[in-house]
Each structure stands twice: as structure tokens, then as C-alpha cells.
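Hi C.,

You asked whether I'd gotten around to modeling the 863-residue construct. I have! Everything is below, sequence then structure, no commentary in between.
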Amino acid sequence: MGGRVNAQTPTDLDSQAAAEATLRALERAIDDPATPASTRTLLVQARDALHASLAEAEAARKRYRTMFDAVPDPTSIIGLDGTVLDLNAAGMAAYRRPREDIVGRPIHVLNPDLPRDHMDPVLEALDRGDSYVIEVSNMRADGTRFPVEVHSANIEYDGRRAIVAVARDLSTRWESESKYRLLLESIDKGVVLFQADQDSGLHAVSANPAAHRIFGLAPGENLQRSFKPADWKIVGENGQELTAEQQPAMRAMRTGQIIESTVLGMFHLPSRQMTWISVTHVPVFSAGGSEPTQVFALFSDVTALKRDNALFDRTQALAHVGGWEWDRVNQQLYLTGEVRRILGRGNAPETMLELLDCLRPHHRQPLQTALNRLVDVNAGFDLELQGLRENGHAFWIRMIGEAEAGNPSATRLSGTIQDITQRKQAEDVLRIQARTDPLTGLMNRDAILGELSAMLGTPGQDSIAVLYVDLDRFKTVNDVLGHAAGDELLVTAAQRIVGAAGHEGLIARFGGDEFLIVCATGDDPSRPERLANALLEAFRDGFRFGEDEFTITASIGIAYAPEDGNRPQQLIQNADAAMYDSKRRVRNGWQTFTPELAQRQQDRLQIETHLRRAADNDEFHLVYQPQVDLRHGRVIAAEALIRWENHQLGEMRPDVFIGHAETTGDIVRIGGWVLREACRQVHEWREQGYGIVRVAINVSYRQFLAEDLAASVRDALAEFGLPGSALELEFTERVLIEDAPDTVKTFMALRELGVVLTIDDFGEGYSALNYVRRLPIHGLKLSQLFVQGVPDNQSDVAVCRAVAAIARSLGLGLVAEGVESEAQRQFLVQLGVPVGQGFLFAPGLAPDEFVHRLDRNPDLAHA
């Protein structure tokens, strides 16, 4: 890939515009009656030539884009300064970003770990005429990484030198290599890899730990020295020494065929130790090769078995277990003691019919057929059969048979019987485990996807419904009581779901606290909705953990095939969207998928895309809602409220875009902008002579986790020369329930700065008093959810009185939100709540409108 590639991509808009202008001028000259005929002929020729040139350029551009997008690996064009100039369709799919999020930005957007001088070695290699290959980890839009092998080469792009980089995804290869190494290190079978050698035939290049153990080799011992041919004598099962050409390893190398189940004696001359192994040799071909270059030896130590009795010696080449022999003429069946033990019969079978009676009915006919073929055409057999012992326990055997050697009439048949019960049980366990969620015992994600795919692919299948079930407030239990209680909740929830759904659908734990139910509607179109109602009823009772009780409800989304999708992922995605719509509307409910939901999904994606660039495009602004002394009406502080106006989407309500920002993580950047903008505004008011106005801002829990909040606040205050008392930070109750040492440390650091710390919307969550008293906070904010119901709603009155009592008992300040009527104000004053905010006093005001309020508030205006 070291050569230079010319990408014909006529994207120069100025050149295209100039060409089009020239065409128009030519057309005007041709149509001008004053133009001489000879000149008009030349002009027509020039016009046609220019038309052809433009058409050829457009065709070249389309060919380039078609070829570029046809490359199956993520491919990008990179400028010499590291800027991404173009990206193909495979790249957009791999990085899960639209083209405009990458093109025009530094290559660090795909690989943030690159050093500053990362282009230097690339250019050096390309200048030498070499290609440049490197393995790195690239990043998707959601922050996840995946390994790639990047091949870079020169390319001419828009008439200038650039670099084309092709990224090959290595995830599958890395996973395969890792699993291969783990398998070799963990199995109890010896594995040795032999390499072809022109001088000595074969030499060992690697061996797994089991091989070292079987041959008594120390870990890390030199294999070529340990397996030096002169130190070993290799004999066959009958004790005859084998030449190098007779040895199965050389036969596998010479013929390119697998040499199976050969019993060899390995006699080590220096130590005079004999080790018997049962070995299979597998030739290994290099890519594109027609002859093997290596041979794998896979073996078991059968030394102890070789020392057993003569009958076992005779049959061990087949299965290393007990033997059987059937005399067809006398109808006598002879079994070794090991076989009698395997069959678990007090009276061992003495005829083949009695042996058949030990097997399950559906396994008798395959054995009878195999015995007949063995008699008729001398065709050996190898069967896995299931039977029952006298104690009622099932067993599995591997039965191998062959005719008596040298007897054309095949009057005697013999073979081995091996107990494979444990292997079969282990296979069943592994098969079940591969499809089962280990915590709840339900089907897991892979299993339900497979079942759903099979159902959707069945011709004539009735309509299928997918119910997507998500537990509401599960994280609260997990955070408050710990993961053990969270696991207990998931197990109990799974039991309730199974009890509600019964046998009417397939049930799976899809991940986390999400469950999936797949059912065919059949002749009952209302079955999915009936199941959804039964599930909601199952979650009506609370969940108890010791002395604590939590109300955990469920939000359910329903999607139907084929109306809402005919592929598993599409159907599940739409059910998931319906579930989130149900959770948004009202928890503990269900919602079916609709085309309107699909449109909302598209709208959400559009919002998130614009939101990601809103801060950079200066689309945010703050308004300030006064916080008022409820008795005297004086403005004593303000809360900064963010507003977003996008030139395409228009004015967006905070309750719409804040949730999206929390989901995508953009809230961290937005919160940083709010912090700095609020401090800048307070500084500006101070410069205008209004003194220090304390401004409250909301801090997201994601923002609290993602950065050193105390350092960010310290820097913002220092930048604008403000004291800590100019700032109030409002946190949700989620910060309380974390109760981690880092949380307390951060709060102490903020308090030392003089910042006022408040818990917002107190009373909506599950906070207990011990959480409140542990953190060094200054005050609480009484949620408008409760304020709006006073003084008439007695439940809201009770909550307000409780929160006011908590604030008084802990010596905390209290601010009431959402005060909209005089009756509410009077109630709060009588309750002893000192400060309030809401539409009764003012909505969020622009900075200049807010200072007009300050002009009517001399105490604060000249503070």
C-alpha cells in the first residue's frame, strides 16, 4: 500500500462555479446575432467540450464515492495535519457517528490516545515508499473501544497529497486467540506442536501445561532439548519400535491426513521411564498452502490403563474402557466387570436382547440396526446410547463394535462400552448454562434472540408480540441497600413475572433490570395486553428487605410482528421505545408501539445531535428567577435556569432537552457552561454596582461524578474574582444516597470555598434523615410537586410540614419552589418557610429584567 493513489474527487466548488459561469457566457455569445458564424462554430465546439468535461468530472466523482463506500473496512482520508477529510460508509457504521461528526475534525476524534507527533512516523514510512501499519484502539460514539489494524498509504485528494487509512477490526481475532490460549492452558489433554525441520524431520516448538505434566517436564523447559529424537524410543501398542517414517506424526505430515487415536509407548532413554499415551495427530496447513507445515499432537496419559488386564489391553485402542463380546452362534454375551458396573444391573445381561432391554426404547433400534450392518457388511459402529439402571438412574454409554479379526463369517462381534454419563450431563449443563441467566434461571439474551429469530422465520407463524419489561426505581434499591439486595430483588421480580405469564410466552432476563416476554397471539389477539396487565398486578405488592419495604413497579412496552418489525432487533428496539414512552408518561403502565413513537425516536436523535453542538454554537442562555423573602417580598437571591434556542428546532423546553443531555452525558459540558456563565453574570452585575447577587445553579449527578467539581467551582470563582458566597449549588437527592467518602470530601471542599449547598426537590426520592445529617449541606428546597397542592390537599400539607420540621431540627435553610398563589404564600409563611420562588413573584427573567427588580430592592442592589 506504499504507492500513491489518485482519488478523482472534484469537490472544488469554486472551479465548478467558474465552469458553470463560463458555460453561461458561451451560451450568450452563441445566441448573440452579432457573433460571426465562424466564431459561433468555435464557441459551440468549446461549449460541447466543456459540457463533456463537466460530465466526465461528475462521473469521476460518483465513481470515487461508489468505490470508496464499497470498501468493507472503515476507511478515511486524512490530511497531512491529521484532519479527517473524508470517511466511507463502513467507517460511519463502525464508529456509529454521522459523517459530519468526523470529517473536518482531527483524527483524535476516532483515536483520542494518539500522541501529538503521531503523524511523523506515518509520513516517514510513506516518504520511503513503504506502507505504515499499526495496531491501535479506535473509539465509537458511545465511548467504547475496539482494536483495529490500520494500514496507511499515500493518496492524491483534490490535487493535494493526503493519506488513506484502512482500519481492520481485530476484535474477533483477539477474542479467538485469547480463547485458544485459555483452552490450551486449561484442558487436561496434552498438546504439543511440531514444526517441519529439514535436518531432523520434526521438532517440538510449543507444549501446553498438561503435556509438561504428563512427561514430567518443568515449566519453561527447553522443548527441543526435551524432545530430542535421540533420547526417545517410540513403540506401537504391541511393543514394536517405530521408525521415524512409521511414527504417526510423520505420517500426518506426509499424507496431510489426521491420524486418530493411536496408542504409543514413549520410552525416555536418559530416565528409563515409559509413558503410554493415546494420541491423535492433526496436520496444520499454512494459509494458501497445499502441504502441512506443522502437526498438532493431542494426547492422554494411558500408562495406568496399559498396565491393566489383558482384555483391557485388547480393547483400549477403541475406547480405553470395558469390553464386550457377542457370540452370535450361541447367543452368548460376555461383558467385563467395568461394563457390568456401568450398566448397574445385579444380574448382568447374558444375551444381546437383555442388553437392548437396558436401553431406552428409542435407542434400541439404532443399536439393532448397527449390529445387523456389522454382521451383513462388516461395518463397524460407534453409537451414543441412553439407558436406565436398576435404581432408576439414567446412564449414557458410548458403544463401539467391530467384527472378530480374521473371521469372515463374523460369528463373534466385539467392542467397547464407555460410561459417558458425566460428559453428557456436563454437556446438558453447559447447554443449559449457555442459554440461562445464572441469577434468575430465566433464558438469557442470546437464548431469547435465537428463539425469537426462529419464530419470526417460521412460515405461517401467527402474529408475535414482544413485551419489554423494565423495573422502575430498581437502581434506588441497588444504591441504598447494595448489590446483594438488588440481586435478591431481581430474583423475586423474575418469580413474579413467571407467575404472571405462566406458560403463555417465553421469558428472559434481557439485561440488568430488563426482562423480555415473547408470545404468539394465535387465536387470542388480546393476549399481550392481558399479560401486561397481569404483570402490573404482580408488582402491586411492595418488596421487603429486612425492615425496609420498597415499591418497585414495572414499565412495559409492546411491539407486534410483522406490523412493528420482522427482525428480532427491530422488534425489540420498538418494544423498548414503547416501554420508555410508558415510563415517561406514567410508571407502572404499558404502552404499545406506534408510528408516532418511531417519529419521537427520530426527533430524540435529532435533539441529541443538535444538543451535542449547542454550547459550541452559543445557543444556550440563562434566565434568573428571583428567590424572595416570603414575608416582605424582597429579592434575596436568584436561581439560574438554562434555556436553549436552536436555529432549526427553535426554543426547546428544559424538561425536554435536559433529560436527553443526562442520557447522552452532554450534561457534563452543559453544566460546566452554566457554572461559568452564572459566575460571569454575577461579576457583570457587580461591575454595574449591584453588589454580590447569590445565584443558585443545578448540578447534575453525572457532573458530580465526571469531574473534580470542587476544582471546577474554585477555578470559575477565581476567574471572575467572586467569593464562594456568590454561588449556591443545588443537588438532587441521589447525591445523598450514594453516601460515599468522595461525596463527603467534595462537599467539604465546596463548603470551605464558602459555596452554599442545597438539596433540590427534597421529599421526592427515598432519602433518610441519616443521609441528610452526614453531608455538610446548608439547606433544602421544598419541591413544587408538594407546594402546588397546598393548602387544600392534606397529603401535600403533611409532606410540607414534615420537610419544614426536618429543616428546623437540623438547622437547615428552606426554600419553597413553584409558589403560584397568594394562598400558597400565606400557608408557607405560617409554616415558617422563609424563602420562596415561583410565578407568583416572577418567571425566569433575562439579566436586564432581573436587575430592574434589584433596582426596587435597595438592600440587595447596594450590598
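If it helps when you're writing up: Residues 1-13, 309-313, 315-320 have pLDDT under 50 and may be disordered.

Thanks,
B.
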